[in-house]
Amino acid sequence: MKLTRTADLWWKNAVVYCLDVETFHDSDGDGHGDFRGLTQKIDHLHNLGVTCVWLMPFFPSPDRDDGYDITDFYGVDPRLGTHGDFVEFVRTARDRGIRVIADLVVNHTSDQHPWFQEARSSKDNPRRDWYVWRDQPPPDAEKGVVFPDKEKSLWELDKKTGQYYLHRFYKHQPDLNVANPEVRDEIARVMGFWMELGLSGFRVDAVPFLLEAPVQDLPDPHDYLCDLRAFLSRRNGEGVLLGEVNLPYTDTMKFFGSADGVGDELNMCFDFIGMQQMYLSLARKDASPLTHALKERPLPPRDCHWATFVRNHDELTLDKLTEPERQEVFAAFGPDPDMQLYGRGLRRRLPSMLDGDLRRIKMVYSLLFALPGTPVLFYGEEVGMTEDLSQEGRLAVRTPMWWDAAREQRHDDDSLLSWIKQLIRAYRDCPELAWGTYELIDTPEPAVLAHRCDIDGGTVIAVHNLGDEEAELDLSSVDGELTDVFTEQPVKPKFTLEPYGCRWLRAWAEGVQVSR
Ligand code: GLC
After folding, report:
1. Domain for residue 279, yes or no?
2. Domain of 477?
3. Which contacts (CB < 8 Å, 24+ apart) does range 456-459 have?
């Protein structure tokens, strides 16, 4: 059955917006945001055109990794509200046609989680096997440390029981043992619980690490991801798993799964490679790194999609660039060592990296919505929020939402906020972008990225000038009359694109009935 563009595949043209309840809006003036505050601000998200909110962890936590260290997967951090407040938020969002997903952080728990407290109490505790223990750390214990500024090894000695436990991230985040069927059942129960309270799915944290422990009674760890997805779909047919998988394309592809060409693991994977190549392109003012990435990027299986982003809540990782490429991006966008993190990323937001050049910033967001994939925004991007380097590490980009800027920009037609609203409206109005096939169009201008998206006889062409000089475009090879998507005015096939300029064009081929 060939059903496209249905609500079952709603994520294909979703606009995802990631936020942390704690920094979004404070309803009671106690100094940090809360669910009631978020609910009060739902119309900001609705007016922007957001269709899916991704909540960063809101669970009880000692907050040593900004909530990614959880002590109760079934709870709500009392500083943020209650289950009642959570349900009211989800209901209010749904009332505006906005679905809600949340971080599923089950690679590890906090070391304060009662499960770990029990597990570490003795070697024969029934929870012992919920975590991963060894008498000696393996020889490669120091390889792959994620936070090299704080950790030296993936294994930590538990003095009382004399064994080492695995922690992929900080030592206060012991890894759960998903090889244990009880742990797997518990993870399913957690997902079932929040879906019953209204969630439409999850952003799955650190997926490759979650699957790395050998899952004994399954021949392939991917079978576990398959099980999770099947469980989710049984409970909620439109449920979605959006995975954090930062690997080369061919490795990431495995996480979509593929039974007879239809994905059966993650519905969406973030395009970390495309994101990094985009920054390299911006640094060089040359579209080729991004063009090359888009050519190399495999098509996901049916019913799956890439998720695209300009910024997320972590360091802007450049780990998949070569060392000289990374240094180029550092030199262009974060030369000061204080702007860099873990030797591989930047703790800056886009507007400051581009020296506040609004034309250039607008062009980058146009790219985000025009390129194939589901766009994911990080809160504050819509109003041009910048970082605060006086905050520690990644917290530099997780400061409170700029509501004053949102108020100022709302009625200014030239503001970034108005531009992002227009982009979202156009993106939702051009099914070609989300549902269609895409092709890159060759141009002689190295700074220009041009591509077309087609579906059911409809064609949208987008051109982006990543350079600071005018570029001459000739789209005479495209069939049909061209009109500008935003102004609906006719456009001649030969035109000049201003520095950092962009255009979305619709090609009206004669005699073709466009079904929209
Ligand atoms: C993921 C999150 C990051 C967190 C880490 C540990 O990489 O994106 O913010 O610190 O997992 O949970």
Report:
1. no
2. 435-508
3. 456/431, 456/514, 456/515, 457/509, 457/512, 457/513, 457/514, 457/515, 458/430, 458/431, 458/432, 458/506, 458/512, 458/514, 458/515, 458/516, 459/432, 459/506, 459/507, 459/509
Two tokens, residue 347: 């703790």
Q: Say if 499 falls within a structural domain.
A: yes
pTM surpassing 0.85?
yes
Q: Which residues pair with 341 in a beta bridge?
A: 345
* pLDDT at res. 515: 45
Rounded Cα gap, residues 151 and 486, in angstroms: 50
To test the ligand 1 pocket, which listed residue (59, 66, 68) has its Cβ within 8 A of the most ligand atoms? Answer: 68
Q: How confident is the model at residue 513 (pLDDT cuts 50, 70, 90)?
A: low
152-197, pLDDT tens digit by residue?
Answer: 999 999 999 999 999 999 999 999 999 999 999 999 999 999 999 9
Cα–ligand 1 centroid distance for 68 (angstroms): 6
Catalytic-residue membership of 244:
yes
Name which residue leads in pLDDT, 212 or 382: 382
Q: What is the pLDDT of residue 427?
A: 97
Band of residue 514 on the pLDDT scale cut at 50, 70, 90: very low
Pairing of strands 316-317, 305-309: unpaired
What is the rounded distance in angstroms from the CA atom of residue 283 to the CA atom of residue 277? 10
Q: Is residue 305 part of a domain?
A: no
Active site residue 118: no
Instruction: Give the per-residue pLDDT at 141.
Output: 94
Domain with residue 480: its CATH number is 2.60.40.1180
Ligand 1 binding residues, C-beta < 6 A: 65, 68, 105, 169, 205-206, 244, 313-314
What's the structural domain count of the chain?
A: 2
The mean pLDDT value of the chain amounts to: 95
- Tell me, what CATH number does 155's domain have? 3.90.400.10
Write the DSSP symbol of residue 89. Answer: H
Whether residue 449 lies inside any domain: the answer is yes
Return the closest-CA partner of residue 175 out of 104, 108, 106.
Answer: 108
Set 205, 265, 315, 432: catalytic member: 205
d(Cα 305, Cα 310) in Å, to the nearest integer? 17
Q: Could you write out the DSSP letters of every residue in 416-453?
A: HHHHHHHHHHHHHH-HHHHHSEEEE---S-TTEEEEEE
Sorting pLDDT into bands at 50, 70 and 90, what band is 516? very low
Which residue CA neighbors atom 3 of ligand 1 most closely?
Answer: 314
Q: Considering only CA atoms, which of 323, 260, 345, 261 is closest in space to residue 298?
A: 261
